Amino acid sequence: MFNKTRFGVAFALGLSVSATALCAEEVKIAFIDPISGPFASTGSNGLHQYQFAADQVVNEKGGILNGTTFKVDGFDNKASPQDSLIQLQVAIDQGYKYIAQGNSSGVAHALTDAIEKHNKRNPDNRVLFLNYSAVDPALTNDDCNFWHFRFDANADIKMDVLTDVIAKDESIKKVYLIGQDYSFGKAVAAAANSMLKEKRPDIEIVGDELHPIGKVKDFTPYARKITASGADAVITGNWGADMLGLGKALVANGYTGPLFTYYAAGSGITAAFGESGKDVIRLVTEGQVNPPPTPEAETYYKAYKAKYPDGNVDQTRIYNVIGMLAAAMEKAGTATDVVAVGKALEGLEYESIWGTKLYMRPEDHQVIQDMHIAKHTNDGVTFDYDGSGFGVVVESTVSMAGMDSATTCKMERP
């Protein structure tokens, strides 16, 4: 199925090239995510990874379509849906045709709805939404639309992988669920309840609660409840400052794990856990960093660290967004006709330098890819996070996770 073609190889063979490809252009990508506030470190690190990927994958290789280059600019949304809509309009007014966002499914819902409405009203000025990390399943189910493409596995796919691991561990009898109180946190809890009941009906859910997103300064009361519950394992979808705060409080209050997470790596989180998180934290992730799966991945990571010594390539899917977008443009023969680029993305097959196969499922625009379970450790770490000496090492892999997962999406195409 996968021909291991990357966009720089003769990808457009046999395809007609439009007039757009006859001259070099600049593809402007608006990165709408938090660059200030409690989630600033997460957003700023993501922006750097986008800008670096654009340079490494496209610009420094001479561009695509006869020299077309990528430019990624940050638009601070402060993790707010309302501010995101303001920044979206600013970006559109400034000529950005591609919108990248990932932190908060609540923001993603606001953006995808606004983009769909804008594109209906402005057929000559349409934009595409590149969702790299907002994983509420609804975005590629009932709330799907043609203009939205998700490059991360959704919460249900990730939970399926996590609960497979939990189900095999007979020592786990009690599980505590905790997450942020918004659409994504609720989706994680619902999936965990449903899948654990199916796979391990003997497991007792000893806690199931949500907390305000980005507002809890001290997670000690939550950690004490979790420890007192006798939980053998904790599942959380927390990210950013909320992941860091929860994890630190758990360790400080005597919890020894395992802690099954979606986003417990990088952005200061790995350094904060250090030795206390070793063999405790488990992370479901789409890309392998340790050990580097390909020579290209090792070269890429070293180049990133040379430019950003304090940074991490902890969101390998960002590389995949840029690579797949470039491949779709080559296939479509245009960088500016977002309808043509969107149709080229549908069904696109791609093999990343991170050892991950990807397939953009046409029926719902949900990327399908290999998923890994990795553990927090300092053993066998080629590339650490946060300069801490600790990183994540892959323990197991599910090939093309979610390939046969159901979707309720009813796609309307332009």
From TrEMBL:
Residues 1-23 form the signal peptide. Keywords: Amino-acid transport, Signal, Transport. Residues 26-379 form the Leucine-binding protein domain. It holds the Pfam family Peripla_BP_6. The keyword Transport applies. PANTHER family: ABC TRANSPORTER SUBSTRATE-BINDING PROTEIN, LEUCINE-SPECIFIC-BINDING PROTEIN. Belongs to the leucine-binding protein family. This is Branched-chain amino acid ABC transporter substrate-binding protein.
